[in-house]
Structure formats: structure tokens, C-alpha cells
């Protein structure tokens, strides 16, 4: 098994779940949140306290797969921060590189979930997870990771570059799943891809970085920057290459979506968890798809994460 550092956000997710008041209302081609009137009082069916965030979700996936996992993220000294530490401990994840920021709250998301459709609206206060410049890339010297897995750092390209460069000096491999803030700076982000071994983006994100309309075109252009590229396309599946093999794949299973939160994290981290365990490229894509399917079938961004020991059924996947 591998030693994997997961660098990213940690949040407390508070779910407000209801079967009718949170249903979407259509105005033309646009869906707006719910039927809640301003100034009204609304009875909610249930409330659920979970933990999430891209860095947390990914770390849990790696640890469940049996990898030695270190999480690097910011929390505060509050109840939400304590819940995150408890979750890390329960999952067997090294929390010694978690930073506690004073005068900030731990990042928190309020997730308004329609239990009938699985649609949700997320209100997020990033708090301590808004910044990452307080982390030092020299912490990697002691850790000596095999892999550095990075989700969004809220557009902090300087910290990304510091960690990417130092990871390469230590001969660690890098998998990167950029977020909205990073994609706002496509030219700068493309320069950083020279350090990246595996890039995971969706189709819309890929089109912000390189020209192309089809998945094949986008994969071809991104392949000029990164050897292994995965582009997902929601219910249409996706496409991926490692430079030697290229696959077009569908979804693992057509299942009812209970909560889509964390689906992208489950796919990316699931792929690396399987690959770092010595599995094939093709097998890792199948596991990533199954992992994502398992997550959306449960409430919470990481409750459904698989352990890598499950028996998986065949899914649509074609070598190109």
C-alpha cells in the first residue's frame, strides 16, 4: 500500500432534509430553490450532521482502501472542528498535520436537500478552509509521501506551486482535481500541470482549459500537458487515458440519487486508491465509477465510500 497526503478542505455538513418544501421551482429554463416564502416558518423532516470537504472525503477513501493516509487542512477550535478530528481518528487517518486557526470558524455547509429528487442547494461558509497559505511544503520532508492528492485550494496557485515542486523533488507523484477558483486562471493553471501525474476534471472544466467540443478532443489537448487524464461527463460516463491505454466508459449503475454531494471526490480518490494499490488502469476506472455510485446512494459526502474489497459487477467500458 502507499503513503498518500490529501491536501484540501474540511467542512462540517449540516443537512436539512424535507420531502416537499425544498423542491425546485422552474422559472423558464431555470430551477430556483424551493417553495419557501420570505418571512415564513418551514417545518423540516430531519437534520443530519456530517463531515465533508474535498480533502476530507478523499482522505477517508484512501484510508478505507488500506493506504497510510495523512490529511492536511485547516479547522478551528469549535464543535465542527472537533467533529472533524473525531472522524479522522475513527477512519485511522493521521491528523497531526491539521492546522487549528484561531479567530476563524471551521468551514460549514448547510445543505438543503429535497428527499424526493435528491436535488440540493448548498450554502457554504468556508471559514478556516478558505486559506491554505499557512501550510509549508517542507512538511512533506518528514512524511515522504508516495502520492500527493490535491483538491481545490481556493485559487491559491502559489501554494499549489510550492507543494507541487517540492513533491517532485521528493519523487512523489501528484494527482490533482482543480476547483472553480483554480480554473479562473487557466493560463497559470496549465503551467502547473507540468508537475501533475494524473489530472481529474469534468467536461465543463476541461473546456475551460483547452479547446475542444467532444470528450476525445478535450482528452487529446489535455494529454499534451499531463500523461494521465480523466474527464468525467456526469450520467454520460467519461473518457480517460494514461498515455498507453484510452477508455470510454459509462456509469457503473443507474441508481436513484439520494445525495450527489461528494460524487466527484469519490470518483477521483477512488481511482487513485485503487491504482496506488497496484490495480490496473482499467480496473481503477471501474472502481472509481462504483465508488461514486455508492456515495450518491447514501446521505453524506463520504458515508458510502467503498473499501476496495467489494465484488464489482461489469460496467460499460471500451478501449479506444
Secondary structure elements and pairings:
Layout (H helix, E strand, L loop, with lengths): L2 E5 L3 E8 L6 E3 L2 E3 L13 E7 L1 H11 L3 E5 L1 E2 L3 H12 L8 E2 L7 E7 L5 E6 L13 H5 L3 E4 L6 H13 L3 E4 L3 H4 L2 H7 L5 E5 H7 L5 H8 L5 E5 L5 E4 L4 E4 L13 H13 L5 H16 L20 E3 L1
Parallel strand pairs: 1-6, 1-11, 2-9, 7-8, 11-12, 12-13, 13-14
Antiparallel strand pairs: 2-5, 3-4, 9-10, 14-15, 15-16, 16-17
Describe the structure.
The protein has 320 residues and is of the alpha/beta class. The chain has one domain: Ribokinase (UDP-N-acetylmuramoyl-L-alanine:D-glutamate ligase). It is 30% helix and 24% strand. The chain has helices spanning 54-64, 79-90, 139-143, 157-169, 180-183, 186-192, 203-209, 215-222, 263-275, 281-296, and strands at residues 3-7, 11-18, 25-27, 30-32, 46-52, 68-72, 74-75, 99-100, 108-114, 120-125, 147-150, 173-176, 198-202, 228-232, 238-241, 246-249, 317-319. The strands form 4 sheets. A 9-stranded mixed β-sheet has the order 6-1-11-12-13-14-15-16-17, with helices on both faces. It has a 4-stranded mixed β-sheet with strand order 5-2-9-10. A two-stranded antiparallel ribbon has the order 3-4. The longest helix has 16 residues, at 281-296. It is globular and about 55 Å long. The mean pLDDT is 96.
Task: List the keywords.
about 25% strand; 4-stranded mixed β-sheet; globular; 17 strands; alpha/beta; 9-stranded mixed β-sheet; about 325 residues; about 30% helix
Amino acid at each position: 500500500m502507499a503513503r498518500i497526503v490529501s491536501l484540501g478542505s474540511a467542512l462540517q455538513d449540516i443537512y436539512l432534509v424535507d420531502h416537499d418544501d425544498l423542491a425546485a421551482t422552474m422559472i423558464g429554463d431555470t430551477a430556483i430553490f424551493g417553495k419557501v416564502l420570505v418571512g415564513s416558518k418551514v417545518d423540516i423532516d430531519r437534520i443530519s450532521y456530517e463531515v465533508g470537504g474535498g480533502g476530507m472525503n478523499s482522505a477517508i477513501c484512501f484510508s478505507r482502501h488500506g493506504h497510510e493516509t495523512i490529511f492536511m487542512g485547516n479547522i478551528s477550535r469549535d464543535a465542527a472542528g472537533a467533529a472533524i478530528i473525531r472522524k479522522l481518528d475513527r477512519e485511522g487517518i493521521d491528523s497531526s498535520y491539521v492546522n487549528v486557526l484561531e479567530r476563524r470558524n471551521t468551514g460549514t455547509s448547510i445543505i438543503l436537500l429535497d428527499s424526493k429528487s435528491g436535488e440540493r442547494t448548498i450554502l457554504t461558509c468556508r471559514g478556516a478552509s478558505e486559506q491554505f497559505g499557512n501550510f509549508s511544503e517542507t512538511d512533506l520532508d518528514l512524511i515522504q509521501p508516495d502520492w500527493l492528492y490535491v483538491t481545490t485550494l481556493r485559487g491559491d496557485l502559489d501554494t499549489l506551486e510550492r507543494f507541487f515542486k517540492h513533491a517532485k523533488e521528493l519523487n512523489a507523484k501528484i494527482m490533482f482535481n482543480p476547483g472553480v477558483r483554480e480554473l479562473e486562471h487557466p493560463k497559470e493553471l496549465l503551467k502547473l500541470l507540468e508537475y501533475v501525474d494524473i489530472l481529474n476534471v469534468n467536461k465543463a472544466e476541461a473546456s475551460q482549459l483547452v479547446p475542444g467540443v467532444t470528450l476525445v478532443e478535450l482528452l487529446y489537448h489535455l494529454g499534451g500537458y499531463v500523461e494521465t487524464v480523466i474527464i468525467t461527463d456526469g450520467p454520460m460516463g467519461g473518457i480517460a487515458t494514461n498515455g498507453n491505454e484510452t477508455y470510454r466508459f459509462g456509469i457503473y449503475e443507474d441508481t436513484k440519487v439520494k445525495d450527489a454531494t461528494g460524487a466527484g471526490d469519490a470518483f477521483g480518490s477512488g481511482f487513485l486508491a485503487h491504482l496506488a494499490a497496484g490495480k490496473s488502469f482499467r480496473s481503477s476506472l471501474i472502481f472509481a465509477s462504483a465508488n461514486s455510485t455508492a456515495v450518491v446512494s447514501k446521505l453524506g459526502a463520504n458515508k458510502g465510500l467503498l473499501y476496495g474489497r467489494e465484488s464489482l459487477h461489469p460496467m460499460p467500458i471500451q478501449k479506444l
